[in-house]
TrEMBL record:
Protein name: NADH-quinone oxidoreductase subunit F
Protein's job: NDH-1 shuttles electrons from NADH, via FMN and iron-sulfur (Fe-S) centers, to quinones in the respiratory chain.
Species annotation: Marinobacter daqiaonensis
Transmembrane feature ranges: none
Upper lineage: Bacteria, Pseudomonadati, Pseudomonadota, Gammaproteobacteria, Pseudomonadales
SUPFAM superfamilies: Nqo1 FMN-binding domain-like, Nqo1 middle domain-like, Nqo1C-terminal domain-like
InterPro entries: NADH-UbQ_OxRdtase_51kDa_CS (IPR001949), NADH-UbQ_OxRdtase_suF (IPR011537), Nuo51_FMN-bd (IPR011538), Nuo51_FMN-bd_sf (IPR037225), Nuop51_4Fe4S-bd (IPR019575), Nuop51_4Fe4S-bd_sf (IPR037207), Soluble_ligand-bd (IPR019554)
Entry's family note: Belongs to the complex I 51 kDa subunit family.
Annotated segments matching region Disordered: 1-30
Length: 460
């Protein structure tokens, strides 16, 4: 087999999968995915233009009112799809504006390293112009003249597709000087990262973009006031930016109506699922879709296993139970249950999976990815791994579980420099809450080892 053939085979094998055919998607209900092709090939510029591409940019630039874009985003209540759920319109309204302000940067966070998450990859590899269009609108609203796509280094195919699409956009004058004859100048560069999970934190991302060590920064000042190279900077996730064109083209009321009466959070969402299910993949669904509906779309668990627990949005969210399956998956509802919506991609845990082994696997990842900037994260996370390893092999001691409780509490919100350690603590805290008896089995005097190889988080 030639190298080109092998590359093509691997690209197809590991491509993020949208499970809805074109016949089930329309511009009225699926703003993120209605343009996507069933064969998974890239929607290049000519096809994108034939499907209303760049019409929102043309409208916004002809109207000449950046504040109207921010107002529409606030009215639509587009909340950040990278995991935090912070309203994008509100973030934009806090950016330094005015003719006397320095021109800043619009930065796309495409460092998709959350275990169990693969939604941004789909958008970048199959519909790059939607992201570019969203970035143009975001830049116009935020007084930016330069944009960066901070891309996970392993996303080689995404980099190839994005760079080709950027060149297409420049040649058609959707990027560069005087976009569409409006007098607005803006261009985008793809910057591939070196592979650090901490770069998902916006200030660590900015540090890395500047060529420095990827450490988070103190806030304030926030990036909207002093970000990349000291200039006002806005950092938004891929999926967040891909929502902007539809909001500008169709209006805030239309966007809000997409979720119906499921939730107060408007719009649609790329939900997905990984783990031992029959059909892992992605679906664009109304915001507020339930976990039960998503698992049903995935064909249920393999091997007729019952569901033990599930993560609603990546490894840094808290475990939910089968009794939570009918809750609408929106930011506030999931938060009230002691977890987070995160990226909205579920990871299911079957009944035969040891929670101790699973937590050891997760905490080893978080410990390895710590930047080492603050003590609870740098020293506390490796300590949790050692304790979990002992419990997994039935070699735990009295007091180990209580120490895990304390380590998790010490890594809680407000006690560390950024959200990395709280994200690592949340699944541990909820696992100890719901499945404490499994951890107790790892104490030496108890009933024996709790060892079992964990299902790889994010396996598809």
């Amino acid at each position: 087999m030639t190298g080109a053939m092998a590359s093509q085979r691997n690209s197809l094998r590991y491509r993020s999968r949208l499970m809805q055919p074109e016949s089930e998607r329309s511009a009225d209900t699926h703003p993120l995915t209605w343009r996507l092709r069933d064969d998974g090939e890239v929607v290049w510029l000519d096809e994108y233009l034939g499907k209303d591409g760049y019409q929102s940019v043309r409208r916004a630039l002809s109207e000449g009112d950046p504040q109207a874009i921010i107002a529409a985003m606030k009215d639509a209540n587009v909340r950040g799809r990278g995991g935090a759920g912070f309203p994008a319109g509100l973030k934009w309204s806090l950016t330094l504006q005015g003719d006397d302000m320095p021109r800043g940067y619009l930065i796309c966070n495409a460092d998709e390293m959350e275990p169990g998450t693969f939604k941004d990859r789909l958008l970048m590899e199959q519909q790059p112009h939607l992201l570019i269009e969203g970035m143009i609108l975001g830049a116009y609203a935020n007084n930016s003249r330069s944009g960066y796509i901070f891309l996970r280094g392993e996303y080689v195919e995404s980099a190839r597709v994005l760079n080709q699409a950027l060149q297409e956009a420049r040649e058609a004058r959707w990027l560069g000087n005087d976009i569409d004859g409006s007098g607005f100048d803006f261009d985008i560069v793809v910057h591939t990262g070196a592979g650090r999970y901490i770069c998902g934190e916006e200030t660590a991302l900015i540090s890395s973009l500047e060529g420095k060590r990827a450490n988070p920064r103190a806030k304030p000042p926030f990036p909207g006031q002093s970000g990349a190279w000291g200039k006002p900077s806005v950092v938004n996730n891929v999926e967040t930016l891909c929502n902007v064109p539809a909001v500008i083209l169709n209006g805030a009321d239309w966007y809000q109506a997409l979720s119906g009466d499921r939730t107060d959070d408007g719009g649609s969402k790329l939900y997905g699922i990984s783990g031992p299910v029959h059909r892992p993949g992605l679906w664009e669904l109304p915001m507020g879709t339930t976990g039960r509906e998503i698992i049903a779309l995935a064909g249920g668990l393999r091997g007729d296993h019952k569901l033990k627990a599930w993560l609603p949005g990546g490894a840094s969210t808290g475990f939910l139970l089968p009794e939570h399956l009918d809750l609408p998956l929106d930011f506030d509802t999931v938060g009230k249950e002691g977890s987070r919506l995160g990226t909205g991609l579920l990871t299911v845990v079957p009944e035969n999976q040891s929670m101790v082994a699973l937590m050891r696997n997760l905490e080893a990842f978080f410990a390895r990815e710590s930047c080492g900037w603050c003590t609870p994260c740098r020293d506390g996370l490796p300590w949790t791994v050692k304790l979990l390893q002992a419990l997994e092999h039935g070699e735990g001691e009295e007091g180990d579980i209580e120490l895990l409780d304390k380590l998790a509490a010490d890594c809680g919100p407000g006690l560390t420099f950024c959200a990395h350690a709280p994200g690592a603590a949340m699944p541990l805290e909820t696992a100890l809450k719901h499945f404490r008896h499994e951890f107790e089995q790892g104490i030496t005097q108890s009933r024996g080892p709790a060892h079992q190889d964990p299902i790889p988080v994010g396996s598809v």
